[in-house]
Amino acid sequence: MIDNADRTLAFSVKDQADLTLALIKTGESGLLRGASEFDQTVVKTIFSELGTNIIKYARRGVISVKRIESAGAVDIAIEASDMGPGIADIELAMQDRYSTGTSLGLGLPSVRRMADVFSIVSAPGEGTQVSVQKRIQGPSQSDRAIDRRSAALSARPTVTPPVQLLRSPLFEIACHFRPAPGEMVSGDMAALFDLRDGVLMALVDVSGHGGKANELASDIRQFLTRNAGPDIHQLMSDLHGKLRGTQGAAVALLYVDSVHATAHFCSVGNTGAYRVAGPTWRPISKDGVLGQRLPTLPDQSTTLQNGDVILMWTDGISELAGRSYAAKNAYQPADTLARELVTQLGRPFDDASCIIFKWIA
């Protein structure tokens, strides 16, 4: 072990005992001082995943951990290097559930999602080097990226809005929507809300198309932004009251409780949800139009497991084709899958939108 003024540590790793000792010494070193318990867990999980890969595939390697302080922020940089067999196809290796061994193949993809910065260099016979950074103090890098995307979207209207992303060490979510061909704006709307103990996903299909439908979809987004919370049944009832006197909308809400690893769903109108990877879960959408008729909404919940993928869609995408495509391509990053579902399967005379949720804890 090399120790440089409590700033950098490096460990030789050849077995589980080495990895366990390295994790203990990293925790005791002070490199993670000031980090929340959650961020400490994330850093140690990244460290453990990279060390496990060295042991499994290369038999021996080195992991270094460095604390970087600058401009009111603190980042932890972790580098894992080995002279093992290397990786022939890095893009394939970064897909969920791909593995050349007997594991589930979740190591590198999960590390990429947990890290703020990720890079990998590898070639057959030349070993592998993985470098990551995770912010533990100061403004989050992912938050700044989301802010930049939101600012760009507000300042520059576009016919097809960019994919919206939300990532954490527990989940990866993306939504995408586009207007009906020939229209400049969409009556479909998808939105993600990162809450204290979970995340709320909303999918909206306003009755009709074009500018009037888009105006109501924007009003619904603003309402949800102000009122987003875990009680989706109350939120649906409040939104129903808000929409009285309008053309109405179909709305689906999915709340994921990150603490208890559960998903809760309610929906009115022509929207749907289905777990395309993991145990079968197909919550129902009740007939009705929010703002005109609010049906009784049943409690529909499920427990989440590592690798679960849930698809939400409006009727601008065929339920059967959408579910089949999402199930076959569940290994793809959420943003790629959401975009392809809308662009490839969106009906030619309707607005189209979807949300892809991946539970990776």
Describe the overall structure.
The protein has nine helices and 16 strands. α1 runs antiparallel to α2 (37-58). Residues 1-6, 97-105 and 142-163 have low confidence and may be disordered. The longest helix has 22 residues, at 37-58. The strands form three sheets. The protein has a six-stranded antiparallel sheet, with helices on one face. It is of the alpha+beta class and 361 residues long. β1 (2-4) and β2 form a beta hairpin. It is elongated. Helix content is 32%, strand content 32%. It has helices at 16-29, 37-58, 90-93, 107-114, 141-155, 210-227, 232-243, 319-328, 334-345, and strands at 2-4, 8-13, 61-70, 73-82, 117-122, 128-137, 164-167, 171-178, 188-194, 198-206, 249-257, 262-268, 271-277, 300-303, 309-314, 352-359.
